[in-house]
Amino acid sequence: MAELIPFAVPAASDKTLLVWDLNSGPTAEALHRSLFTALSRFGLLHSLRVLPNAAVARPGFYAVVKFYSARDARRAQKACDGRPLVQSAPVKVHLGSRHKAVRYQTLPLNSTRCQELANYYFGFNGWSKRIIKD
Length: 134
Hints:
There is one protein chain. This protein is of the alpha+beta class and 134 residues long. 27% of the residues lie in helices and 19% in strands. The chain has a four-stranded antiparallel beta sheet with strand order 2-3-1-4, with helices on one face. The chain is elongated and about 65 Å long. The model has no long low-confidence stretch (mean pLDDT 87).
């Protein structure tokens, strides 16, 4: 079944992955690059944030990853959970879990993100904002 991908900032919990048990050895920037490379193979990412663990937790990082597609997020979760994704120790990867009763405002994508999304799914490269006449 086809999935509708709106030109909007992904807000649904089924498009958000939480990745934790990331080691404190590499920097947040290095983890960001490694996670981006590893997770991009499942689909186009809207955002990826690597954050330090809370002070009460052990040292390390966790990541919040937003996909445009819920199907891509599910595939990434199933393939990466409990595996050494970007380090020698396994990481935990779970889909986000927001309460269904909470409504989130749908925000439109900016023009650059719209172009990126269209290029990825339609396979074009070089969209133009000009009207071309024959």
